[in-house]
Amino acid sequence: MSEKDVDLRRRRFLTSSVSVVGGVGAAFTAVPFVASWQPSERAKAIGAPVEVEFGKLEKGQMLRVKWRGKPVWVLRRGAEALSGLTQLDDLLRDPGSDVAAQQPGYAQNGHRSIRPEILVLVGICTHLGCSPQYIKTTDPHALGDDWPGGFFCPCHGSKFDLAGRVYKSVPAPTNLVVPPHSFLSDTRIVIGVDQGAA
Description:
Layout: H1 3-35, H2 41-46, E1 50-53, E2 62-67, E3 70-76, H3 79-85, E4 118-122, E5 133-135, E6 150-152, E7 159-160, E8 181-185, E9 188-191
Antiparallel strand pairs: 1-9, 2-3, 3-4, 5-6, 6-7, 8-9
């Protein structure tokens, strides 16, 4: 074996080794760079859309999630709750949800939702920003025997029905806010993306 053959082998070995080490180094450099393209937890809290799986919710059950630092409720309503909504119109300040800023256009209806059985609300009272409690008719409460279920703000006594519409003669001036949302499937929604934009 000549000296020239040994130098070529050594050169190939060194070239291959440097290429492998360089490739590994490039991969280690690229992974954090590509990962930085994903929104951080802070960015998600500020406003990134939030996906919610609600398939296991039974009638009358509610999920609580966080979007833009605010509590958001996803409530599954039954047929009885939905039929009771129309009976409350005389007791409500804005039964037709006429204040357009309180919900997207696709939720400006009697049940304030895209699909009647699934209600999505920002869980912040429109009076001074407390978080109302979800109180069913079967829950212990001091709201009277005629309480049809809904939301009660313990801070100043505002009451909302099962569509988030505010009662008359309470401190809250407007209905609870319906955030932009859309359905990804029969059991999954995304909060923060308008219906039609998903």
